[in-house]
Amino acid sequence: MRFLVESPHTAHECKLVVKLVQSMGYLNNFDWGCREGVHTGWVVIEAENAAQALGVVPALIRNKARAVKLSKFESETVDKWEIDE
User: Fold this and answer.
1) What is the span of the domain harbouring residue 40?
2) Alpha carbon 30 to its chain's center
3) Residue 8, φ and ψ in degrees, nearest 5
């Protein structure tokens, strides 16, 4: 399963969080909004469940992070949808 992991942190925590992610070996997997003032890191990761996906987030901020299971829609399914007006 694929998960989008979102890991918000404060400006004060920023450098430490990025260094911790680097030490965990995931630095190049993450995208960061910090330089734009959005202190959040995002990564799409394969994992068996949300708890495992959150393992890429440093323990310091893991309680603020979330993992969203991703899915795709098939065109055939979407073509059958009726839109409520």
Assistant:
1) 2-71
2) 8
3) -75, 150
